[in-house]
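Objective 1b. Sequence-to-structure analysis of V-type ATP synthase subunit E.
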Amino acid sequence: MKGLPPGADASLAPLRADILARAHTRADAVLDDAAHRADAMAAEATREVEAIGRRAVEAGVAAARADASLRSARERRRAHELRLGARESLHAELEALVLARAEGLRDSPTYPAMREALSDRAVTVLGSGATVEEDARGGVVATLGTRRLDLTLRTLAKATLESMGGEVSDLWTE
């Protein structure tokens, strides 16, 4: 390959300078564009990080609310169960007391008249052919054929207690 003629370097110098200036201008434009793109990407990344952070906080708050709501429901259910348990216990104590008092009527001086009145009632309800027997705990049981009438002191006490359901439940709901 042949070299350039003498003086060509000097005549090409303005062309080289122009090409070099254009290259610098183009390189500056590429660098400016890259910087703008990098800034835009960084801003978008910042927005995305902030959005992720907000969503994480919102999810955490929602989870905490749900957890608190669940715990609150559990505690309300537990308190309700405790109240029901206490009511059942009180009702059982009341029933035991009423039954004991009812059976204690057997030792009362008025028991024979009471037993006679219960026997009369059994005959009135079932008919004159009814068989009436005294119960060991007090009161009577009458039968006529397949019909049976329980007028024992326990049964009458339980029926009385049940008939007073509203009044009795008021004792522990206030």
